[in-house]
Amino acid sequence: MSRIPDERPLNPKPEVISELRRLLPAASVLATEAELAPYECDGLSAFQQRPLVVALPETVEQVQQIMQLCHRLEVPVVARGAGTGLSGGALPLADGVLLSLAKFNRIIAIDPANRSARVQPGVRNLAISEAVAPHGLYYAPDPSSQIACSIGGNVAENSGGVHCLKYGLTVHNILKLTLVSVEGELFEVGAEALDSPGLDLLALMTGSEGMLGIIVEVTVKLLPKPERAQALLASFDSVERAGAAVAEIIGAGIIPAGLEMMDNPAIRAAEAFVHAGYPVDAAAILICELDGFNAEVSVDVMRVRELLLGAGATDVRTAADDAERLRFWKGRKAAFPAVGRISPDYYCMDGTIPRRQLGPVLNRIAELSAEVGLAVANVFHAGDGNLHPLILYDANNPGELEQAESLGGAILELCVEVGGTVTGEHGVGVEKLNQMCVQFNRAELTQMHAVKAAFDPKGLLNPGKAVPTLHRCAEFGAMHVHHGALKFPELPRF
Amino acid sequence: MVEHLDTTTEPAIVEQVHAARAAGSTLAIHGGKTKDFYGNPVQADAELDCSIHRGVIAYEPTELAITVRAGTPLAEVEALLAEHGQEFPFEPPHFGERATIGGMVAAGLSGPRRPYAASVRDAVLGVRMLNGKGEVMDFGGRVMKNVAGYDLSRLMVGALGVLGVLLEVSIKVMPRPPGRITLIQEQDQASALASMQRWAGQALPITGTAWLCGRLHLRVAGSEEALSETQRILGGTPVAAAEADAFWTAVREQRLECFADEQALWRVSVPPATAADVIPDVELIEWSGALRWLKTELAGVTGSAVKPRRYGASAVSAVRANDRINDAGDVDAGAIRPWAAAAGGHATLFRAGASTPRPSDGVFAPLSPVVMRLHQRLKQAFDPDGLFNLGRLY
Ligand SMILES: Cc1cc2nc3c(=O)[nH]c(=O)nc-3n(C[C@H](O)[C@H](O)[C@H](O)COP(=O)(O)OP(=O)(O)OC[C@H]3O[C@@H](n4cnc5c(N)ncnc54)[C@H](O)[C@@H]3O)c2cc1C
């Protein structure tokens, strides 16, 4: 099924292919069906579309030339990093150029004295920490996809990880970006210093989903490795109690390096996959990591242990050594693929809610799941209140994908209702356009479009993503009134 | 947190913006006016007083976030957080008793703890604001992670009101560390910079560094275990708690003796490892080397020579070779920006006496043409009629 969210009229300009061939080596311009196939979706495979052409530049000048060309011909451009995005941000356009940054995979310079590194956008997240490890440094944001996802994609999505409770998101861990504008001009935002003059365009660019410019270089901030990290694994016989324990720990003034929760279906799936030693009968587990000085960590571990037991944990284990600590994390980090093994398909949601709402929202999700008849496994960044309900479905069963989507939509609307947001770290992409209409009103969306136009007056960078048109919201709004009576409309293809 | 909130102040502000727009007049937005010295002078027909719009809207300590109206006095909010054992991680300067939360966010200035915890911008989670069309808009939220739409709330931080009027802000707060100590070491500038670099490369709970007059002050915060371990690693003479707190407040509020005169004060933000002689003649170094303050007698007349304010002859001779200091050994104010830029940073004329001429291109370092164009277009996108704080930023 090809599901195109883009509302623009289709306007293919095949001459862009031959023009690209003048700019790039033959092997760097892909246009046959077989060559295009690997690019037809990102990590959200429910949406698929082959681009008109894929361009694989390897120098900044080439990116500039491609942008100048596309700007002149008015051809839309979709940037793509590693294609692990979960919201369809890198979904190609049928009449557009897919600009892959895959060849920008060099670490340009490591500056241990300033604790920063200049890297190309296609460098894998984990490769940065690996490269700087000899200096006792690391790059803090660690999305579960870190072995594959690119730093450019991380910036475009403002990705988080299991350690962002203490160390922040991508926006808190980058210093400077070099970008190519839609017109093909090169510019920098941010600085190697801690601030730069003028408006905070570095913050604006972070999480802008490829809508405002093409990132061609990232200067990341590096942190010194803490002397010691220790993890605890706590079991609970109810999800609410686990949720309450999260608030207890934070209320006690402790900011763990990571505080993650998994519910029973997620525990079972992960245990079957990687044998992390999880308690398969627990209703929920919390993984809590503390880091700092050896002596300090020892004290905090004891405090957290007491807090967890006081909050009703049925069992609290402290990792005996680093190998066991990493095993605790292994199950968590492999949770998505683990769920992928037990269900033909799954749909990953990404709402964030105030922490105190964890228990009630998880209960309501369970009710919604029962109503629709699709199972949900929960694995998430509890410390940040960032939920990842995984809706299990089988796309081969007619109607199940749509059911999964409408359940997902209901969950996100629930998140907004309790004071949260429809996406904590995966982005809006094409997936959550309708929910954006729930979260933002007409003036707010219009303001976002005006910001987009300030960077991209012709609307050529990743058009149709991230911010819904008012027209779409009007349609969805009408839908919304008849809540439950209709499912999301299939939008006309072109 | 139960508090009576006056529901008439937001409509009053909205009304003033609509009226100004209808009349084609311009507005200077202000809170407590404590940071009027910062930025370029504003051309405006009238003032928009946001300090009337005050009150705490939501504060739940376990959520690690507070939502307040922009006109709320900063000191009140900090006192409330302290009651619950929490604080703003970025240690904002007040620059006066009347400082408001809105001014804190609009100025975007962070204090001594900034490199070790967060900046104002890092901690802002959401804003409610008014654009130049008089539309009330909410961006971001009250939760820790939020990537729904562009991050327009962080864009407001440091924007000095040129994009709109802040009505409410949600800000991340952190638990106050259980204890803190301050250590002093006698070090010259170069060795202080080297020490700060060495320690910044280790995971130490340092929360402040300040070098001035040959002395390096180090503040450490954390548990008892962390404090004793860090003190062992750093060395130095501990300072009595009251004296230490007074010192850091003076650094944050720029009440140190060296800030007391009318000379032009430059804020130079550079990569922390920038060598001592690249930015000569500094008064005060903060942020492990990333923030350096220096003074000149004249502020802006490019090429003009100014009176000497020297420490360390080596610094002077190093730059003399580059012709940045005149024969009398005076720092040329016009040279500061090129120095900062060469180091990968920028210099702001932070304060200057009323009679001191300002640089012709403004107090903030000039932007590249592409970035300047983006600024103009963003201004247009938020404030199409040019209502707010004209000229304050650029
Ligand atoms: C198993 C799994 C686990 C995951 N876990 C996490 C997690 O823990 N936390 C988290 O935050 N995310 C997670 N993700 C989501 C995803 O990995 C992140 O969003 C990641 O940052 C995407 O990077 P990418 O290189 O794959 O980007 P892509 O998917 O290729 O692109 C993502 C977006 O960025 C834009 N883009 C990419 N490169 C550039 C560039 N150079 N310039 C401008 N725009 C660009 C694209 O146009 C698109 O809009 C997970 C995904 C999977 C599949």
From TrEMBL, chain A:
The keyword ATP-binding is assigned to this record: no
PANTHER family listed in its UniProt record: GLYCOLATE OXIDASE SUBUNIT GLCD
Protein name: FAD-binding oxidoreductase
Residues covered by the FAD-binding PCMH-type domain: 47-225
Cofactors named for this entry: FAD
Domain of life where this protein originates: Bacteria
Pfam families: FAD-oxidase_C, FAD_binding_4
Lineage, highest ranks first: Bacteria, Pseudomonadati, Pseudomonadota, Gammaproteobacteria, Chromatiales
Keyword terms, alphabetized: FAD, Flavoprotein, Oxidoreductase
GO MF entry, a single one: FAD binding
TrEMBL record, chain B:
Pfam families cross-referenced by the UniProt entry: FAD_binding_4
The keyword Flavoprotein belongs to this UniProt entry's keyword annotation: yes
Database matches in InterPro entries: FAD-bd_PCMH (IPR016166), FAD-bd_PCMH-like_sf (IPR036318), FAD-bd_PCMH_sub2 (IPR016169), FAD-linked_Oxase-like_C (IPR016164), Oxid_FAD_bind_N (IPR006094)
Database matches in PROSITE patterns: FAD_PCMH
Superkingdom of origin: Bacteria
GO terms assigned for molecular function: catalytic activity; FAD binding
Record's keyword terms, sorted: FAD, Flavoprotein
Keyword Amino-acid biosynthesis in annotation: no
Domain FAD-binding PCMH-type: 1-176
Protein's UniProt name: Glycolate oxidase subunit GlcE
Organism: Halochromatium salexigens (Chromatium salexigens)
